[in-house]
Amino acid sequence: MLGNIQNLILQLTIDPVRADQFFADPESFQVEFALSDEELSFAKQLPQKAITDFQISVCRKRSRRVYDAVKRTSACLQQQKGQDVFRSFAIAHVMRSNEWPNKIPAFFDHVESALGDTVEDGVLREVVSFERWMYNIDQGMLQHDVAGRGIVRTPQAQIHSFLVPAEPLLDEWVSPELRQILMEGYGQSKSFVLALQTGDEIELFEIDACIYEILMQCEKPQSKEALTAVVQTAIQKHEVDKQPQEVLAELEELGILIEIGEEA
Questions:
Q1: SS3 232
Q2: Which terminus of the chain has fewer CB atoms gathered within 10 Å of its CB, N or C?
Q3: DSSP label of 4
Q4: What is the pTM of this model?
Q5: Interior/surface letters 147-161, b for 16+ CB within 10 angstroms, e for the rest
Q6: For the chain, which residues make up each domain, given as ranges?
Q7: Rounded to whole angstroms, how far apart are CA atoms 229 and 226?
Q8: What are φ and ψ of residue 203, in 5° steps?
Q9: HSE, side-chain direction, 13 A CA sphere, residue 155
Q10: From start to end of the chain, where are the E strands?
Q11: CATH 3.90.930, domain 145-260, yes or no
């Protein structure tokens, strides 16, 4: 019956493991799918490469449902590496329906597990790190309650350092030109990014090493005197031509640093 062969083809296109088993031993599928000898003969003629390419295509197309979360990583998965990664991910995560919204962390893990020690792999590792960081912020995983008395970095402000230039990461899409910037800048110096969340919106800013070091010291409330000393040390180290009070006032005005009172 036509339905039997259709069920088999559907199985082969959504489950790469079963597809490999079929092409290795097609006769073992005859009873399971109630195939006649004629249907089995037809199934044997299915082009394995076409089935494999279709599996990859389905996996990629389904990932568009979470485009914003994985777009940079997908763009940096070049040619054969991308084909291999998406098919091996489809093998590890067989989806009867589009389950990508629940698979984003697993996809990042999977990509990282496929990386080696080349510059291209190093760049991709940083891109994955950035998108994982953004995903965790969006899911509220990095926010924390602050309590006590003093000045503290708002829980809505997150910071991260990367081994690639920040500009391509902050762009909406990693074009070939921006990817070249990533490649050329990989490991040359660190870049620092601030993510400031307001409601459902996340604004991204590149910050310098001085501000990054100051904000790293502000995860717990500090007195104004103690924080002023921290800022003084940072601006002297990085030769910033500002007074500590100026730096603190700017960070407070932007809502990155806030002053809190005693815990209720």
A1: helix
A2: C
A3: H
A4: 0.88
A5: eeebbbbbebbbbbe
A6: 1-138, 145-260
A7: 5
A8: -95, 140
A9: 11
A10: 150-153, 157-162, 191-198, 201-207, 257-260
A11: yes
Question: Which residue's entry shows tokens 């979360």?
Answer: 69
Closest by alpha carbon to 165, among 132, 189, 131, 129?
Answer: 189
- Please report where in the chains the tokens 């597809």 appear, as a residue: 19
Chain centroid to Cα 244, Å, comes to 35
Q: Which residue has the tokens 């009070």?
A: 245
d(C-alpha 170, C-alpha 131), whole Å: 10
Q: Provide the H-helix boundaries in 139-201.
A: 166-170, 176-185
Q: Give the integer Cα–Cα distance in Å for 27 and 175.
A: 47
The predicted-structure confidence for 183-242, as pLDDT tens digits, reads as follows: 999 999 999 999 999 888 999 999 999 999 999 999 999 999 999 999 999 999 999 999
Strand, helix or coil for residue 223: coil
